[in-house]
Specification:
CATH architecture of the largest domain: Alpha-Beta Horseshoe
Bound molecules: S-adenosyl-L-homocysteine
CATH topology of the largest domain: pyruvate-formate lyase- activating enzyme
Structural class: alpha/beta
Number of domains: 3
Radius of gyration: 23 Å
Shape: globular
CATH class of the largest domain: Alpha Beta
Low-confidence stretches: 1-8, 456-467
CATH superfamily of the largest domain: tm_1862 like domain
Number of strands: 20
Mean pLDDT: 93
Strand content: 15-25%
């Protein structure tokens, strides 16, 4: 890749990002991308060719860790063929302690970075550059101008993005490895967050999702500091920003103040992600979630009383140590009763160092875990099919993110995916009022008022073929 500067062609160096895991990792990768752009690097979608490859890892389940390890081995021959290629390993595999053991296992990795950390790679790249001083100068200038630089190919192109507001986690759910890898809870200052969002909005972003492992604990670690409702009020005032979301919530911290702020602030969307994890009190106790199922159900009632059209997402773990068939049935019963919009379900995976891995045998077989996972998914598909069908004929507000196969693709305030057709204008980044003409479990289709519904040839493009 090259661009022209002062009559000469400057070959730009390139970087590639490989990202696994949660939204926070997506944000962390974007943060690395931002820093590399300040150094003049340009994004490449080829890890084979890129000068710098960042591998941002997740270890929340064994399968995620295996994926990262596999990719690191894939990179090895590329590094051997081109010793100048820089490989940076970051994220929860490295953890806050720096992952010292990994240095021996992966000798082809140049830089190791804890979650959310970017400085080691920036320093490494500056220190080995032939024009060290000039590069450092350019970096500083960019950094003063914009606190957050979107990759060039995403400027005025990226509609919705993430901003981490609270790093780490100080809770100890018995199954979860995240607190030990991301460190203790640490809220970012309001000014820093707002500055970053303003930068993003100046580069075309219209929607931000504020992130935290327990996002509603924002500010709890700062005595007399602002809390999430206060932060939402400040962000709501940012001109040019259309929508605000936040995740992940913990049932014990979704206060009335927070729910009131959601109702009061026009930009905050009616969507919450509040994991339940299990529908049985004994399992919840062993998970150290610190609520019972009655309390969870009451919370859902409280949320719905304030926001009747709210959409709610949950996480469920199946096959937690000791989970009996009867206990699992109670999880299904809870889901059937509460009828939530989204359920992310995972099979329990014992993680090193966690309380459950230390003291509870992983005694539900892999086949049984798979069966339970499938049962949750089947039930959830029925539930969401029914919920979405109730939206037929309604007008919904869609923030349009991109054009995909000739159709505009965006999301409602409740985070439902909507497709519609229109050739009259460029809808990207704009709010469209769309009438829902078709609903399915994973998406909706609609038309702008006064238009005909999508024709059959488009339907057949996305409906799976039935053999
Ligand atoms: N801090 C957030 C997200 C944690 S990770 C929260 O507390 O909800 C995202 C999800 O992964 C969790 O909600 C949980 O459902 C799942 N998860 C975490 N640890 C797991 C494990 N050891 N095995 C299986 N699923 C796990």
């Amino acid at each position: 890749m090259h661009h022209y500067r002062k009559n000469c062609i400057v070959m730009s160096k390139t970087y590639n990002l490989w990202t696994a895991g949660c939204q926070m990792n997506v944000d962390d990768s974007q943060r690395v991308g931002s820093e590399l752009e300040k150094l003049g690097y340009i994004y490449s979608d080829s890890y084979r060719e890129a000068d710098v490859v960042v591998v941002n890892t997740c270890v929340v389940r064994q399968s995620a860790e295996d994926k990262a390890t596999g990719f690191l081995w894939t990179l090895k021959p590329y590094k051997e063929n081109n010793p100048n290629k820089v490989i940076a390993l970051m994220g929860c595999m490295v953890g806050v302690k720096g992952g010292k053991k990994l240095v021996k296992t992966f000798p082809h990795v140049d830089v190791f970075m804890s979650p959310s950390e970017t400085a080691p790679l920036v320093d490494f790249l500056i220190s080995r550059d032939e024009e060290k001083a000039a590069l450092e100068e350019r970096y500083k200038l960019q950094d003063e101008e914009l606190s957050f630089v979107l990759p060039r190919h995403q400027q005025n192109n990226l509609v919705a993005t993430y901003v981490t507001i609270i790093r780490g986690c100080s809770h100890v759910c018995s199954y979860c490895i995240i607190p030990s890898r991301r460190g203790i809870e640490h809220s970012r200052p309001v000014g820093e967050i707002v500055g970053e969002i303003r930068s993003m909005v100046a580069q075309g972003v219209k929607e931000v999702t504020l992130l935290g492992q327990i996002v509603d604990r924002y500010g709890y670690d700062v005595p007399a500091g602002p809390c999430l409702p206060d932060l939402l009020r400040v962000i709501n005032d940012i001109e040019g920003l259309a929508r605000i979301r936040f995740l992940t919530s913990h049932p014990n911290y979704m206060t009335d103040d927070l729910l009131d702020a959601m109702v009061e602030l026009p930009k905050v969307c009616e969507h919450v992600e509040v994991p339940n994890q299990a529908g049985d009190d004994e399992v919840l106790f062993n998970m150290k979630r610190e609520y019972n199922i009655t309390e969870y159900a009451n919370l859902i009632k409280r949320i719905r009383a304030r926001m009747p059209k709210v959409s709610i997402a949950t996480d469920i773990i199946v096959g937690f140590p000791g989970e009996t068939e009867a206990q699992f049935q109670r999880t299904l019963g809870t889901l059937a009763q509460l009828k939530l919009d989204v359920c992310h379900v995972a099979m329990y995976s014992p993680r090193p160092g966690t309380v459950s891995a230390k003291i509870l045998p992983d005694d539900v077989s892999a086949d049984e875990k798979k069966r339970r996972l499938q049962a949750v998914n089947d039930l959830q598909e029925q539930i969401v099919t029914e919920i979405n069908a109730s939206l037929l004929g309604e007008m919904v507000e869609v923030l349009v993110e991109e054009k995909q196969k000739g159709r505009w693709r965006g999301r409602t305030r409740t985070n439902k995916l909507v497709f519609f057709e229109d050739d009259s204008q460029d809808w990207r980044g704009k709010l469209a009022q769309v009438e829902v003409t078709w609903t399915g479990p994973w998406s909706l289709r609609g038309t702008l008022p006064g238009q005909q519904p999508l024709n059959m040839s488009h339907e057949s493009m996305i409906l799976p073929l039935i053999h």
